Amino acid sequence: MDNNNVDMAKLMNMISKMDKNELQQGLAKLNQMMSKEDKEKLLKQFKNCN
Asked: Where are the alpha helices (DSSP H) in 1-50?
C-alpha cells in the first residue's frame, strides 16, 4: 500500500510540472490507448512494472 502511495506522489509531482496543454495531450493519448482492444494487455504490463 505504501508503494502505491509513493507512486501516486510521483505521479502528482509530474502532473504539477506539466502545463495545461501538455496535460490535455497526455490524457488524450492515454484515453486513445485505453479505448483500443489491447487495453487489458497494456494494464497488465503497467501493473507488472510497478
From this structure: 2-17, 20-34, 39-49
The pLDDT mean for the chain works out to: 79
Cell of 35: 479505448
How is the chain split into domains, by residue range? Answer: 2-49
State pLDDT tens for residues 26-42. Answer: 889 888 877 876 777 77
Q: Which three cell numbers stand for residue 37?
A: 482492444
Q: What is the pTM of this model?
A: 0.47
Encode burial over 15-33: b for 16+ CB neighbours within 10 A, e otherwise. Answer: eeeeeeeeeeeeeeeeeee
User: In 3D, which of 36, 34, 50 has the Cα closest to residue 1?
Assistant: 50
